[in-house]
Amino acid sequence: MRAIQRFPSAVVAYSGGVDSTVVAVAAFRALGSERMLAVTGDSPSVARSELHGAEVIAKQAGFSWATVQTKELGDARYQANDGSRCYFCKSELYAVLDTIRDQRGFAVVMDGFNQDDLGDFRPGLKAGQEHQVVSPLKEAGLGKDAVRRLARAWGLSNWDKPASPCLASRIPYHTPVTVERLKQVEVAEDALHSLGFRQVRVRHHGALARIEVPIQDLPAILTHREAIVRAIKQAGYRFVALDLDGLKSGSLNTLITESAKKEVHPHD
Q1: pTM (2 decimals)?
Q2: 167-248, which class in CATH?
């Protein structure tokens, strides 16, 4: 991929998702294991299952991988959880990766943003621009479907992995992000995963947990109703609700006003 080969070395912001995996594998193939490093940010907003999955894929693909602690929860602006939360999270991640790049002599930081991300509300893009992060998929004009086809052609086991944003995305805007709330969401979602639900969101609404799954999985939720209610309440919720509208990634973004989006979106 020419967008990668024009650099002598790279640090890749790697989450374990399809997009960043393709960039990491492409960097590994183009630059070699000594001249690339995939790095996963670790904090309470990252589910343990996601961190483990990132490690598994890195070992399968054979590229160099490391984790680094990020401290976005120490930023009051991030905790406030307004429409710019993702901006502050990515700013922290890229600042940490910039340090790794400089200390270890890498040329650039790369990420997994793709062409389709330009049409969504992505405050992290602004942070990437400020830190001069290179986005090879976006530069190549590759959207989500093309990236998945490429991952499948390369034999990557996560080619069809559902998108899994950070745990903070389950907390409605203007509800402060805390370690306790993040853990509640993680425990509840882990319980649903253990029951066989591959794609799920547990939205945190105080004492109420609102479950989102794809429409086709709604009957199965009712089949496992008792086990789900028990597990969700054990996670600390008092009430359990099922969203009949089904799973919609980024559904809480509908609560952000257009004026608020323009304050943080670099393309408006």
Answers
A1: 0.90
A2: alpha beta
